[in-house]
């Protein structure tokens, strides 16, 4: 869909009004127009627009992502920032991520020793979901292997339905007028299974509440708000499950897909692989695993991830809605009009990016730094006050995961080059053909990264 909309914009212009079943939709495909909108109307477009299916656990009426910009959204964001995603929270949980990264390395090493084929996206998804779960629920998360596999399976199923969910959101008004609800049964089947699984996980956490210090982790704070224990905002149990589902699906699927796209680009470009490996060997060496504290000293690795996000953003279409009528570029836009920002087109806009369709990490080493006062051309995690609050964590997880894969293993692909074709039927970008490789250890038994973290 994003490519079809990009083609329409290239022919008719970057700021368009489309009509779908006679309902207007504003389509934006230019960095300069995005800047104009968010400079003057950020609050006005702070709503993510219509909810496709109210009862759905992901992107539904109980979720955080689609919640109106108000007290509930601000309360949930405050909890996420103070307990999980903010700088101080990330510092406190660094040891969790180090342990999970070591497990990621050991799992890859085991597959290498057994000469097994590795599905990079699946391995990255396991790493991300396990890390998020431990950060959210502590040691009680997924102690049973079958539950871990069920979370992974349901996250993948939701991802496969992402374009249908997006369509139910953008087209809700015309679909209601026509009295049809396409995809609802299919979507709710997955949602109900996810809700049952998350309820079991929460109950197990509650049974072990005495084993950890209350309110030290995000789940305890959410449960306290559910029980009404001095909460700024009382939430219900479905709010908690919806937030968890959106974390595992939204953060888990998107972050693992970024890792897969990044490795595909690296393996398709031997020069980039060699330069990245040289940087990691120089900064980290071969006696220990890469760790988060190394990242500021690895600018080329960071540039590779930024370039991956530019070419393959997790959310290609960003839906919003105008809360009040306003005028943009001389055109009046009525209240309630849907806005769709084609992030894919913005980040390949030839007016703002040199060689926009080529993978060039060097552009993020200073040559093409974004001029924010003129344009918003780099928006892989959204834009404005409703941008993704977990962008720093996501980038860190991808950078360390790719760092381990490049530092510790040599990779062999089938054929001469990886097929970069995009999967169809998804609102979140994915490779049409999952990246599967065989690997061999490159360095002998590096020390775990968690052994290298200075005590605080």
UniProtKB/TrEMBL annotation:
A GO term, aspect molecular function: iron ion binding
Protein name in UniProt: Cytochrome p450
GO cellular component: membrane
Keywords from the UniProt entry: Heme, Iron, Membrane, Metal-binding, Monooxygenase, Oxidoreductase, Transmembrane, Transmembrane helix
Source species, domain of life: Eukaryota
Positions annotated to bind heme: 388
Mode of membrane association: Single-pass membrane protein
Localization of this protein: Membrane
Cofactor(s) for this UniProt protein: heme
PANTHER family in alphabetical order: CYTOCHROME P450, FLAVONOID 3'-MONOOXYGENASE-RELATED
Main location: membrane
Coiled coil: none
Similarity comment: family membership: Belongs to the cytochrome P450 family.
The species this protein was found in: Arabis alpina
Any Pfam family: p450
